[in-house]
Automatic annotation (TrEMBL):
Gene Ontology MF term list: DNA binding
InterPro entries: Cro/C1-type_HTH, DUF5753, Lambda_DNA-bd_dom_sf
Domain HTH cro/C1-type: residue ranges: 23-77
Protein name: Transcriptional regulator
Length: 288
């Protein structure tokens, strides 16, 4: 029987994905199909599927029942039941459940490495309050409620704390030059935002690079994306793409690898960090 890896530092979202994967592996190791497992558990086929894909949070009793059916030893049973309990713990972002409706913030909170390619906007983790307020207000139906905008801005500012905490992830951001030149919020807002980028880049865990206009055609033309990697090998990378139609999470290893290769190819033609800081400084002066 497999060893179950756990850590109290993991976010509920990552724990849920891990629990789902461990339960699926356990079923596969004993050679039962989802239909056969459902029949022996007295569950529907859809419940087995939801539990094994993380769409449903398995309760402690569900996990105990699965462990009994699959013959898990006592240590594995105890670890999985504990993991099921931890899945139900609340992450800091649940205080903003009305703002963060997807799983992204939970994955981001657990990531050890964030690779981000942006073509339109400064990444959320690097936005200033005024810049974020302009972006959020522009994206909401008009007229929008000022209190709603303020709450969303405060939620985004809370996310920024991720980069300054003791176990902060490494952020490698590549920005299209257009991100720096698009006058969002007016001259003062852009000047302050670009200055903030320069300050953020001084952090040892933050690398900001710029893809200049003269790079021509490149591997990121299809749009922005993020690849999240985690400290433990048992937690596979996740690629994330956000658009008007909603969020897309890519977890298949081959598909995620394509995004990682694309990010590397974008990096091949982007300015080096020092050159990028020079360009950001130059553009910042245009907003003086």
């Amino acid at each position: 029987m497999q060893t179950v890896h756990m850590s109290m530092a993991h976010s509920p979202t990552v724990r849920l994905r891990r629990l789902a994967r461990e339960l699926r592996k356990m079923r596969e190791q004993v050679g039962l199909s989802p239909e056969a497992a459902a029949a022996r558990l007295g569950w529907s086929r859809s419940k087995v599927s939801r539990v094994e894909t993380g769409r449903t949070r398995a309760s402690s009793s569900d996990v105990a029942q699965i462990c009994e059916l699959f013959g898990a030893d006592s240590s594995v049973r105890a670890a999985l039941i504990q993991l099921a309990k931890e899945v139900r713990q609340r992450g800091w972002w649940t205080a903003y459940a009305d703002v963060f409706t997807g799983s992204y913030v939970g994955f981001e909170d657990e990531a050890s490495l964030i690779r981000q390619w942006e073509v339109q906007l400064v990444p959320g983790l690097l936005q200033t309050e005024d810049y974020a307020r302009t972006v959020i207000g522009a994206g909401l139906p008009q007229p929008h409620d000022a209190d709603d905008v303020h709450r969303r801005v405060m939620a985004r500012m809370a996310r920024r704390m991720l980069l300054s905490r003791p176990n902060a992830p490494e952020l490698r951001a590549v920005l299209d030059e257009a991100v720096l030149r698009r006058p969002i919020g007016g001259t003062q807002t852009m000047h302050a935002q670009l200055e903030s980028l320069l300050v953020s880049a001084l952090r040892p865990n933050v690398t900001i690079r710029v893809l200049p206009y003269d790079a021509g055609a490149h591997a990121g033309l299809e749009g922005a994306f993020t690849v999240l990697s985690f400290a433990e090998d048992i937690d596979p990378d996740v690629a994330y793409v956000e658009g008007t139609a909603g969020e897309v999470y890519v977890e298949g290893s081959e598909q995620v690898e394509r995004y990682k290769v694309a990010f590397a190819r974008i990096g091949d033609v982007a300015l080096q960090p020092e050159e990028s800081m020079g360009l950001i400084t130059e553009i910042k002066e245009h907003f003086s």
